[in-house]
Design brief:
The complex is a heterodimer of chains A (125) and B (376). Chain A has 125 residues and is α+β, with helices and mostly antiparallel strands. Helix content of chain A is 19%, strand content 34%. The longest helix of chain A has 8 residues. The termini of chain A are close together. With 376 residues, chain B is of the alpha+beta class. Classes of the chains: A alpha+beta (125), B alpha+beta (376). Chains A and B meet through strand 4, strand 6 and strand 7 of A and strand 1 of B.
């Protein structure tokens, strides 16, 4: 299972990038595999302020709709425009072209408090 | 990430039955889920797996479904035909030996207990294939009405079942029997070897057949069909395939409170054959008009997948809820079924489907949603 070392994770299988600037958020390889064929993605509006843990997007497979929770508080800076026509990018490239949205104004301490790659690997065992 | 809804009928995880093909499913990477009291594959892993690919395999080539959860009943005896004809809506008198028909078992109110296929195996012998979720109810109902000179036998536990579906199903069959036996004609039934039964029917809108055999040889038979060119397919695509062609799912689109006439399946109800359970209610509905009609509803533009339970609105007012719904893999559009007041159940009626907080334009369309280009 692919779990990049440079990301932080939630136990509900979202990831967030680390570093400066707007930070990408997505779902893990494990999550996309569990969800299977993703056919629709509903993304938040740019500029929306969100609180940590808030349901902010919806990812839909053939069989189920799943809420995506924001791993941290912040403001939506950008959403992935490719996903409207190609939701399957979440399956094929969950850490790359399948990013969901980017957050700015994030408190680094909130990211520090998340699972690191080793912690997430243990979780999905 | 958290689950918000599911559309496969689910039962509690306890005491689930296992198919004779359970180990074979696991070996193929089958993702097992509870369905109608059984643990069945919803889809398979791997290059050819996943609901969308499995769906396409059935529309374009051939898929193999485990249907061992379905029930098999025999009705035999000198009184079998007359008695069964009083229990079911279709007319057994129209069936020659080796022929089958879709039919309904109704309650006294004309509501659907089960939808099934009944085959005539002889002058005094009938074979019924019933839904897994209704098998116990069917048996209790039929047993309670049994008459002398009629024998009812439940052979569900002895049989494994496979549905081989898709345009290439006849070729798969030919390889399976090594050219030794032809498939029966549409809706026909035939014995294969010592204890196999083949029925030319299905639940996908494609050509194909269902094959029943003793559970002991199920794995071997399944492997032979795969080797003959069928791709393993799970219940996930079985649901999208059947919905595209508007085949009803009992428990979702059919139930004890709706008659087959309301479901738009009056073709399988023969009111002129003589009385049967529920026939008076159906006759009255026909005379007085139907209280509702099951309509095929298609979302007009791009929208999230339609799912069972989503509200259906007309001019801003909630008028129903989807009994089935999906993003059609063949059409790329949201599709669903819902019982509507008859005046709204007309092709072209503008509706809206409420998905979470938003309403998406939809309209009533002609059934089925999907028709093969070659025969449209």
């Amino acid at each position: 299972m692919n779990v990049p070392d440079n990301l932080r994770y939630l136990d509900s299988h979202e990831w967030i990038a680390t570093g400066d600037g707007p930070l990408s958020v997505g779902i893990s390889d494990h999550a996309q595999e569990e969800l299977t064929d993703i056919v629709y993605v509903e993304l938040p509006e740019v500029g929306r302020e969100i609180a940590k843990g808030e349901a902010i997007a919806v990812v839909e497979s053939v069989k189920a709709a799943s809420d995506i929770y924001s791993p941290v508080s912040g403001t939506v800076a950008e959403v992935n425009p490719e996903l409207e026509s190609e939701p399957a990018l979440l399956n094929t490239d969950p850490y790359g072209k399948g990013w969901l949205f980017k957050l700015e104004g994030v408190d680094p301490a909130e990211i520090e408090a998340m699972l690191d790659a080793d912690g997430y690997r243990k979780l999905i065992g | 990430m958290g689950r918000e809804s599911r559309s496969v009928a689910e039962f509690p995880d306890k005491d689930l039955h296992r198919s004779p093909l359970h180990e074979a499913h696991l070996a193929l990477g089958g993702r097992m889920v509870p369905f109608a009291g059984w643990e069945m594959p919803v889809q398979y892993e791997g290059e050819r797996g996943g609901i969308l690919r499995e769906h396409r395999a059935v529309r374009e080539s051939c898929g193999a479904f485990d249907i061992s959860h379905m029930g098999q009943l025999w009705v035999r005896g000198p009184g079998a035909e007359a008695w069964l004809n009083q229990q079911l809506t279709n007319d057994l008198g129209m069936l020659g030996e080796g022929e089958g028909q879709y039919s309904f078992l109704l309650n006294e109110a004309g509501g659907v207990i089960d939808d099934l296929i009944v085959y005539r195996r002889g002058a005094e012998e009938f074979f019924l294939v019933v839904n897994a979720s209704r098998r116990a109810d069917d048996l209790a109902w039929l047993t309670g009405r049994l008459e002398s000179e009629v024998e009812l036998v439940d052979q569900s536990d002895d049989f494994a079942g496979l549905a081989i579906q898709g345009p290439n199903a006849p070729e798969v069959w030919e390889r399976f029997v090594d050219g030794q036996q032809e498939l029966p004609p549409r809706n026909g039934i035939a014995v294969v070897g010592e204890d196999g039964i083949v029925c030319r029917t299905g639940y996908t809108g494609e050509d194909g057949f269902e094959f029943f055999c003793p559970a002991a040889i199920a794995e071997e038979v399944f492997a032979s069909f795969l080797e003959a060119g069928a791709a393993p397919c799970g219940l996930g695509c079985r649901d999208t395939l059947r919905l595209e062609v508007c085949y009803p799912l009992n428990g979702s689109d059919l139930g004890p409170d709706r008659t087959p006439l309301e479901a738009g399946l009056g073709f399988f109800v023969k009111l002129d054959k003589g009385p049967f359970t529920g026939s008076e209610v159906l006759r009255a509905q026909k005379d007085e008009g139907l209280p509702s009609r099951l309509a095929a509803i298609q979302i007009v533009g791009k929208a999230p997948p339609a799912r069972p339970g989503y509200p259906v609105l007309h001019e801003g007012e909630e008028v129903s809820a989807l009994t089935s719904g999906a993003l059609s893999p063949s059409l790329g559009r949201g599709i669903g079924l819902a019982y509507l007041p008859p005046e709204l159940a007309k092709v072209g009626t503008k509706l809206e489907i409420q998905i979470r907080t938003r309403n998406f334009p939809a309209e009533v369309v002609k059934k089925p949603f999907y028709k093969k280009e070659s025969n449209s």
